[in-house]
Design the sequence.
């Protein structure tokens, strides 16, 4: 299984890459020891959104399905967590609420994906349908302000958003601050490594083949619709994980986190980073989230304009993604550097061998 961590579908391999991975991981684990608690909480917030980006990378970059529905499933799981956590009484039941909320998002993705994929919807129309479903949910939730809009004890509250749910709790321990940060680090490592193994496995190869030429993959005997549905459900489930974690982190969720501006953000993160590689998406999305949050402190409008400018620059200058392009350049440079170092040694070994003969 561990051999699948490296393969043709992922960038980065060998001792240098994994050594760098461990160094970055060690830095992330020691960060709370010298940082202020406010900054640690902010970083935990950034990491919550990474799952959504990785899910879109799997669907769009590897599966060829451009989905504007990441915030749709983000919202389903977020509101689902709120409803379940409130009605289940909070406490340790919040862990169960989190898992059920993610399952709810995956079930919704399975239903929507079934009708789209078996209905032959693909290309730009796939994005249109998922965006339409996202906007419908955002509009519906926005008009649920009356007291009649409730599920059990949980009120939806319209544009004001749902609130009052407990954060993730285990016994008497609230998973907040540094604890939440370490949970996010562990989840990201698990999800990242699991996705690397998935895309480098036989299933991943079929997913990529379906993206490249679905007709040829079908002629080889694969039911491409099943692989597309699997990809869509997993990617949407990761968006649902972000939504449930977001609601537990802030103990609220509003329809604005689902609407059009929010739906466009994952597209920008993944496009800028490099949609065809998980590592590029992980690194690039985190950097963009960090930069966006920093600029938003001074001007939210300026941050949105910058995101639009980055998307335009990506489309015009680096269609495969800036972070991925930099990563490939560094990998090529390192390979060329190693070959230049090895060439004199090989030449000397050849000369000595010829003299001996």
Sequence:
């Amino acid at each position: 299984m561990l051999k699948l961590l490296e393969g043709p579908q992922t960038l980065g391999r060998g001792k240098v890459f994994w050594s760098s991975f461990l160094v970055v991981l060690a830095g992330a684990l020691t960060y709370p020891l010298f940082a202020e608690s406010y900054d640690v909480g902010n970083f935990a917030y950034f990491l919550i959104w990474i799952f959504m980006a990785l899910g879109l990378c799997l669907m769009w970059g590897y599966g060829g399905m451009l989905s504007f529905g990441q915030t749709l499933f983000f919202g389903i799981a977020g509101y689902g967590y709120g409803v379940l956590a409130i009605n289940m009484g909070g406490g340790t039941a919040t862990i169960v609420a989190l898992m059920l909320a993610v399952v709810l998002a995956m079930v919704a993705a399975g239903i929507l994906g079934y009708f789209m994929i078996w209905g032959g919807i693909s290309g730009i129309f796939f994005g249109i349908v998922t965006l339409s479903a996202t906007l419908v949910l955002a509009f519906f939730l926005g008009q649920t302000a009356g007291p009649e809009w409730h599920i059990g004890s949980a009120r939806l509250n319209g544009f004001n958003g749902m609130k009052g749910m407990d954060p993730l709790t285990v016994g008497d321990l609230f998973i907040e601050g540094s604890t939440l940060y370490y949970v996010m680090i562990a989840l990201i490592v698990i999800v990242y490594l699991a996705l690397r193994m998935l895309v480098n496995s036989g299933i991943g190869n079929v997913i990529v083949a379906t993206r490249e030429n679905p007709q040829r993959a079908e002629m080889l005997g694969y039911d491409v619709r099943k692989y597309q549905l699997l990809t869509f459900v997993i990617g949407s489930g990761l968006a649902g994980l972000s939504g449930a974690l977001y609601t537990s982190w802030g103990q609220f969720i509003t329809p604005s986190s689902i609407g059009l501006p929010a739906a466009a953000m994952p597209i920008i993160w993944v496009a800028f980073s490099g949609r065809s590689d998980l590592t590029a998406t992980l690194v690039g999305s985190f950097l963009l989230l960090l930069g966006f949050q920093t600029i938003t402190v001074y001007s939210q409008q300026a941050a949105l304009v910058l995101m639009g400018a980055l998307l335009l620059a990506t489309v015009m200058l680096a269609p495969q993604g800036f972070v991925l392009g930099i990563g490939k350049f560094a990998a090529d440079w390192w390979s060329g550097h190693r070959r230049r170092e090895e060439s004199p040694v090989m030449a000397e070994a050849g000369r000595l061998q010829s003299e001996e003969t």
